[in-house]
């Protein structure tokens, strides 16, 4: 896909981190970018800086997602690109003993459900609705659109406390090929990136010694990933027509240990 001002894109989670870097990279190519996010001030600021459109969207709400696509398409036209970066996580053991009183507790199911709703169902909701819109477009070089999703290395080697997070990201990996096959006859490609440990706002509040330890755990290069590196891989997936149905780790060769 040739990236230029004739192309519109939607980036979920585009107000910060991996999504922001991708929104900026697309805009630098001339693409008209709509940012879906719950961070109103930050999202509006990024959209203003890149000449895009901010849409306050909660990916767990069908009504909110529909309104976001309606606003984005009114501003930029039907998107040919969707990049799903909206997501969150938690760290809770499946079952554990209290250090204080020896009592036993289990993973609260509402907390598990929340992660699935945001990371997995939210991602699929945006894919399905964006793909339906892409079907209305005329194909260019036999192609109507490209979708990039964000999973995590935790999809393959989740750590202690990551049952919900790993399940949600594993679901994103697991649905990539079936969705690519669903859409292959319509000229829409689907790929997924599995990032390792990246220097995003999620880690921004961590103490320096924690950040240093995480960086040291990466085989090479021995540092945290840069959001711009994620963006470059996302753009490669979008621009390369033969890239389809793939799940690609971007992790400096790390394999996560149990903790």
Automatic annotation (TrEMBL):
InterPro entries to which the protein is assigned, alphabetical: NAD(P)-bd_dom_sf (IPR036291), Sc_DH/Rdtase_CS (IPR020904), SDR_fam (IPR002347)
Q: Name one GO molecular function term.
A: oxidoreductase activity
Which keywords label this protein?
Answer: Oxidoreductase
What Pfam families does the entry give?
adh_short
Q: Which residues form the signal peptide?
A: none
- What superkingdom does the record give? Bacteria
Q: Which family does it belong to?
A: Belongs to the short-chain dehydrogenases/reductases (SDR) family.
PANTHER family given for it? 17-BETA-HYDROXYSTEROID DEHYDROGENASE 14-RELATED, SHORT-CHAIN DEHYDROGENASE/REDUCTASE
Q: What is this protein called?
A: SDR family oxidoreductase
Organism from which the protein derives: Stakelama tenebrarum
């Amino acid at each position: 896909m040739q990236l230029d001002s004739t192309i519109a894109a939607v980036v979920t989670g585009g107000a910060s981190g991996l999504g922001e870097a991708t929104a900026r990279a697309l805009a630098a190519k001339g693409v008209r970018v709509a940012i879906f996010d719950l961070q109103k001030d930050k999202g509006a600021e990024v959209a203003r800086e890149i000449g895009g459109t901010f849409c306050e969207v909660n990916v767990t709400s069908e009504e909110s997602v529909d309104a976001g696509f309606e606003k984005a398409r009114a501003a930029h036209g039907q998107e040919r690109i969707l990049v799903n970066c909206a997501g969150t996580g938690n760290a809770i053991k499946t079952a554990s003993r209290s250090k204080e009183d020896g009592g036993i507790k289990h993973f609260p199911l509402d907390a598990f459900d929340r992660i699935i709703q945001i990371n997995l169902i939210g991602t699929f909701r945006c894919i399905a609705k964006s793909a339906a819109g892409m079907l209305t477009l005329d194909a260019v070089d036999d192609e109507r659109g490209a979708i990039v999703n964000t999973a995590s290395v935790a999809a393959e080697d989740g750590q202690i406390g990551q049952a919900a997070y790993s399940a949600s990201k594993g679901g994103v990996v697991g649905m990539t090929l079936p969705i690519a096959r669903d859409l292959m006859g319509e000229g829409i490609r689907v790929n997924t990136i599995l990032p390792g440990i990246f220097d995003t706002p999620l880690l921004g509040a961590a103490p320096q010694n924690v950040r240093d330890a995480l960086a040291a755990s990466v085989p090479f290069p021995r540092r945290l990933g840069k959001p711009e590196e994620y963006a470059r891989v996302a753009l490669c997936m979008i621009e390369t027509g033969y890239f389809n149905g793939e799940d690609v780790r971007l992790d400096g060769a790390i394999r996560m240990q149990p903790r």
